[in-house]
């Protein structure tokens, strides 16, 4: 066992701040890294020490593996935590960290490499008797796809996917045979650009599918425990924007089946640390299919923490130090419903990035609300990185109460000025009757786009000025009041 007294956090913004909060609880000293435009970022102020790592482009800063490890050694760190994004699922980086004599706060590098390749991951899932979506691995030509569709009697639509990576990149839906040549080239070039690997696979497209992911926690001694599931169906451009736990889509019997399937797979691949198994549920047949393993901390881990009372980042550190899991499966009893929304610095109508200075910031407060912020009032939101600036979570005794608390957080509690955020769109989603009834799929935002946009109301500083002007006008017209 190796005690972690000091850790370098190889990340920025929301994930870096989230990890630092747990480090304070565990009395672990933190070293932040920052690029030139991030010199005044929130994670820089929060860390015990901060080191300039390079210029704005990620390859010069947050993806510069050798430089990050050099800083960790110079600062006498015991470990590196990658957060999510950037190098979190980079097996080469994990190996370099371990070779440098540092503790890698995450799963074994060989498991990251194995699960990072969707084709190999799918084969392992099949070997572990985990259901997978009907598909064709290692696609080269349009003819390959058409032959597979004919032989396996698969109809359009289909989904072309990059074998490497995730985050919705290199994924193209195809509805007709005529679209195939262009779609294949598009997926290939996106995959090459995002992951440096243009290997593709193709799968049957599940209409109205629902994304269910199971949070798994495993130590180095073979103990694997699931912390139940999350629903991550609401997405735009194949990226999640709202998650909740437990899932409103599945029965208790299906919940048990899906969770134990995830545990079986993680045991098969020799996983340790926290990680997530993603499934796609076909609501017509109630069948679920393996999608991928996320070999890192998930953005939406907070909803699982809210329903179980556990700190997943703390567990990551304990497992990395060599401690056994402090609980058994029977000890896990979720007793609340939680929802998380991602506050991205984007135009709620077009999803175009919005960067600049946050001139005003009010963070939601009150019962049942948890906020993970990566910014402060006066902070700059640079154009070079992910647009996530804050996670807002709500919890209640049941789903309707969690929705009510989230409504309060977004409509009354949150105020961001100087940049645009997707908060108004999120508010219109949680107020939509179909969302409230639990009737939604991965295409919910596409299908209700115009309706959701018509509900979007953006407040500005002008609204405040008008409110004050109206108040002054009333006093002027009505004369002195009793309370004055």
CATH superfamily of the largest domain: ATP-grasp fold, B domain
CATH class of the largest domain, please?
Answer: Alpha Beta
First-last Cα distance: 69 Å
Known CATH architecture of the largest domain: 2-Layer Sandwich
Q: What does the radius of gyration come to?
A: 23 Å
What portion of the residues fall into strands of 2 or more residues? 15-25%
Report low-confidence residues grouped into runs of 5 or more.
Answer: none
Helix amount:
25-40%
Number of domains: 3
* Mean of all residue-level pLDDT scores: 94
Instruction: Give the quaternary arrangement of the chains.
Output: single chain
What is the fold-level CATH name, i.e. the topology of the largest domain?
A: D-amino Acid Aminotransferase, Chain A, domain 1
Class from secondary-structure proportions: alpha+beta
Task: Please tell me what the overall shape is.
Answer: globular
The side-by-side strand order for the widest beta sheet comes to 14-13-10-11-12-15-20-18
Q: What is the number of strand segments?
A: 21
Tally of individual helices? 17
Main β-sheet description:
8 strands, antiparallel
Domain ATP-grasp: 122-321
Pfam family, one: CPSase_L_D2
InterPro entries: ATP-grasp (IPR011761), BC-like_N (IPR005481), Biotin_carboxylase_complex (IPR050856), Biotin_carboxylation_dom (IPR011764), Biotin_COase_C (IPR005482), CPAse_ATP-bd (IPR005479), PreATP-grasp_dom_sf (IPR016185), Rudment_hybrid_motif (IPR011054)
Domain Biotin carboxylation: 3-450
